[in-house]
Amino acid sequence: MALSAFILIEVAGDHTKSAYKTVQRISGVKAAYTVSGNYDLIVQVEAENMEQLSDLLLSKIRAVDGVTKTNTFIVLNV
């Protein structure tokens, strides 16, 4: 059974549009939204296991130019 999570992403300066375009093309990202408030993007992701989720977050999403902070919420109920 796949893991689902929502990741709130803070982006530096005027990188929001480019970060959004990059993030939505990452494998495992099911939906991406630009939002107002303390964070700039909210992303819904799916991964097969914790290791894959960790790789998706640490190696792919946090590597996107302009991403300065993330906050991950793992879905507990399906």
Q: Would you write up a description of this structure?
A:
With 78 residues, this protein is of the alpha+beta class. It has a single domain, classed as Alpha-Beta Plaits. It has helices spanning 16-23, 50-61; strands at 3-11, 29-34, 41-47, 67-74. A 4-stranded antiparallel sheet has the order 2-3-1-4. The relative contact order is 0.34.
Mean pLDDT across all amino acids? 96
Largest sheet properties: 4 strands, antiparallel
> How many independent structural domains?
1
CATH-defined fold name: Alpha-Beta Plaits
Judged by helices, strands and strand pairing, the structural class is alpha+beta
**Spatial order of the strands forming the largest sheet:** 2-3-1-4
Our estimate of the beta-strand percent is 35-45%
Uncertain segments are none
Output the radius of gyration.
12 Å
CATH superfamily: Lrp/AsnC effector binding domain/regulation of amino acid metabolism (RAM) domain
Number of helices: 2
The helix-strand sequence is EHEEHE
Can you identify the CATH class? Answer: Alpha Beta
Q: Distance N terminus to C terminus?
A: 10 Å
Helix content: 25-40%
Spatial shape: globular
Number of strands: 4
Per CATH, the architecture is 2-Layer Sandwich
